[in-house]
Amino acid sequence: MNFGPADWVILVVYLLCSVALGVWARRFVEDLSGYMVAGRRVRTSLGIATFVATELGTVTFVYFGELGYVSGFACFIIGILAMIAYTAVGKTGFIVAALRRYRVMTIPEFYELRYSRTVRLVGGMILFLGGVLNMGIFLKFDGIFLSEVMGFGPDALVIIMSVMLLVVMTYTILGGMFSIVITDYMQFVVLSFGMLVATLAVLATVDLSAMAAAVETHLGRDGVDPFTNTRFGWTFVVWILVSSLAAAALWQPGTSKALASESPQVARKVFFWTGLTFAGRAMVPMFWGVAALAVFGAGHPTAAAMPRLLGETVPSGFLGLLVAGMLAASMSTYSAYLLAWSSVITRDVIACFRPVDLPERTTVFITRIAAGVIGVFLLVFGLWYTIPDTAFQYIYVTGAMYTAGALSLVAAGVYWKRANTVGAYAGLILGAAAPAGFLLLERFRDSLPSSLAFIADVNIAGLLSFVLAAAGMVIGSLLTQRSHPPRTLPEVQ
Amino acid sequence: MSATALIWIILFFSAALLFFVIAAVAGLRGALDLKRLLKGANRSGNPPAAE
Q: How far are the Cα atoms of A294, A333, A348 from residue A369, in angstroms, in the given order?
């Protein structure tokens, strides 16, 4: 076991502080906007801290570390693409400024404003399905990370992860966004420090020239050129750029941070500065993965290589800090995601079966129940499901089920007057079709007819979802302008 | 070490530096923002109504 007494003390104190703070924040929740968007009073620096904490979970470290291990420096391009996408959204206010201006709390709420209540219902269902499937593997990868870093067997970690999930569910269910903002801030500080410690430990152990040599030996040109890398290529690069742009503007857990901000201007600043951290967010764990390749060589279980390296290189005492940082990262991600998906199922699916919205108290009550049910699902799904391709590609393709349709609906809804309900349905359904096809058919890729083989390629399925969603929106709207005249957005101050 | 590998390593250090500098600034200033957010709560312990 790598974990010493000092590590345990740090970890236990940290977990207790998190729960105490999160539960204490319950006193600040007065109404629905307090619960879901912290009363829309979050300023820039706090917004950046909570945004970074939300978008950095242990699973993020594991999938980026895995990519570094299997593809060398070539995967660093992902960090650059994400930085470009998020800073562009921040600089231009693309979509997020409009969403904040209309004071929506979830993205499908915008669908009702611009299209219809039924579009909101369909969009809510797709968002919920894609979001929960996307989150479904988090627990499993957290388990892999902790078992390797701490030196436990995987059986014990099922229990540890269950405890962690219970802790997060407790404060998310009770305190909503106020709890999340407060605990996210603390988690942001701890995880940033943990990342710094791990990076310094890796740099002290592994020589840079040894890393470059390992990449050249094991991966050759694939290890430095993302465009010729067999795992990536042009399709992948274009897909990730478009996908990052869509995720930056429309991924509910992150976007809810913009919707919680003090004003549309603050929302833009939060996105811009957070965007600048996104290259480091990806490249730091990727760098640890490349270091693992230099230390262990190829042939190690891909997702476990980087955590094992950290377990062996980070000194005792600091290891407790690192694990606390990683747990911090996971807890902040889980809490934001739990709140995001439970808000969507309550407000955009269950409530949409009624002609009018549910009363606020009922909405908060159902949201809390939904967060509990999603938590149980995460445990079961995470332990049972075997992911196709790399974890990174799974995360992006499940995300595309929703983001592809959402990008066409919201971008057209804000910037194109002729977008109508028929275009919205076509965009939503076609956007979800390619990723859903990939998830269903990739298991039978060897027996697929050659005409359908492309759908089992994760990069093609991901890119295709955006193309189909955009085509569905444009063609569907243009063909039905007379039968379904477009609805205009209400004027806002 | 190849020139391409060197470029990626330089990009890594630039990105990591940017991350940790922004994290430090957001960490320090975020504490003040958090204080203001919680101080905005009214006497009953609840925040004022949204704008």
A: 47, 19, 15
